[in-house]
Amino acid sequence: MMTPKTKIIIVGGGAGGLELATKLGRKNQAEIILVDRNQSHLWKPLLHEVAAGSLDDGVDALSYLAHARNHYFHFQLGSLIDIDRENKTIKLAAIHDKEGQLLVPERQLDFDILVMALGSVSNDFGTAGVKKHCIFLDNPKQAHRFYDEMLNLFLSYSVRHKPDDKINIAIVGGGATGVELSAELYNAIEQLTSYGFEGLDKEALNVTLVEAGERILPALPIRISTAAHHELTKLGVRVLTQTMVTRADADGLNTKSAEKINADLMVWAAGIKAPDFMQQIGGLETNRINQLVVKPTLQTTLDSTIFAIGDCASCPKKEGGFVPPRAQAAHQMATLCYKNILALLEGKELKEYVYKDYGSLVSLSRFSTVGSLMGNLVRGNMMVEGKIARLVYISLYRMHQIALHGYIKTGLMMLVGSINRIIRPRLKLH
Ligand SMILES: Cc1cc2nc3c(=O)[nH]c(=O)nc-3n(C[C@H](O)[C@H](O)[C@H](O)COP(=O)(O)OP(=O)(O)OC[C@H]3O[C@@H](n4cnc5c(N)ncnc54)[C@H](O)[C@@H]3O)c2cc1C
Questions:
Q1: Which family does the similarity line name (predicted)?
Q2: Alpha-carbon distance 176 to 218, whole Å?
Q3: Is 116 close to ligand 1, i.e. is its CB under 6 Å away?
Q4: Does domain 7-120+274-346 have CATH number 3.50.50.60?
Q5: Nearest CA to ligand 1 atom 50
Q6: Fewest C-beta atoms under 10 Å: which of 216, 339, 364, 396?
Q7: Architecture of the domain delimited by 130-271
Q8: What is the pLDDT of residues 344-403, one digit of tens each?
Q9: What is the pTM of this model?
Q10: Segment 153-177, tens digit of pLDDT
């Protein structure tokens, strides 16, 4: 008689979870089920490009069902809402259609091993008016909403334009998302001008980037944040540091120093947290931003059959502090989690995760790329800029694609990308 296979559920098919499901599926040693609330995967660091229209996710998104079939795992569409550790089940919310008709009732799936990889959402720190008036860039739906509203603003401006009239866009948070989106907006306006949007030029755009800390890109070396600040200012972005937003209204942002920043469109990209429903989910230990606290083996502190990886995990670093919420960390954690799950199944000792920081690159659209390479790539910490930086920036996405598709298919995808750059418009226009 055949013994039933161990059932491994991975919740969240993002930068970490999808790579893990792909690796485990190939191994074919257990029954692998990937659960995601969306039908398709788009690598999250591309969201600001979707928001500005420089990337069409209709072309780049990957169908979970197709990928699951090709890599020997199962896919279940659904949103996790709870974990029952005693009965080793997870609960998925009911699914409704656009009209609110029930399609699939609430359901439970049982597991032997569970991996939580459901990422993070923006943290508005309870700031008044933010949920109502600002757009977050947490998923493709929100990126589309920004894109549609931006295009509407540009369209109405190009029809009505008068002297001194401006398109005011405010972005809160001077991290990579805020900085990269600011630059993408200038690329978008240049492209739209070239496609015939009348009266629309760089001067029409008034982008304000607001950061509460002393400098933008606070997680990166000071030289890089200075270089990025300089590049943004050159493009025309008003960069406000040491500026705390206290409230968002329909017509703009209010700051602690009582300044009003007028804005027709506002994005909130200041800080992250794991989703609120994760707070003490299943009685597991969580921190103040709802992340699951894990041991260096990536097992949650209170249940060794539940792992957490990526942004939703709070993982201590050997040298102190915690692993940052980054795509490279999610990628590395997926690799170790894969090895540790196999070790657990084979009764071997589990390894500890050591975060390797290869540096950070920030893309200022086609205008520039700045960043630093660190540790294992170069000796010490080296600042890079321009074409080399752009190449390394793109290579982070390539690594993700290689982990999912292998070298040959990734090569073919790069070829299709090059052809698309010739035959498709530079900017999504609808
Ligand atoms: C605009 C932007 C730019 C960025 N740029 C960079 C960069 O240049 N470099 C870098 O290192 N990092 C960057 N990051 C951060 C990086 O995207 C994240 O650290 C990384 O994606 C985290 O991976 P993850 O697997 O933990 O989660 P994600 O990649 O966010 O995946 C989470 C998955 O879980 C699913 N999910 C969520 N909730 C549920 C639920 N309840 N039930 C089922 N499924 C669920 C989601 O649909 C998603 O597919 C950027 C982030 C943003 C927003």
A1: Belongs to the NADH dehydrogenase family.
A2: 9
A3: no
A4: yes
A5: 45
A6: 339
A7: 3-Layer(bba) Sandwich (3.50)
A8: 999 999 999 999 887 777 777 777 777 666 555 445 566 666 666 677 777 788 889 998
A9: 0.90
A10: 988 888 876 777 889 999 999 998 9
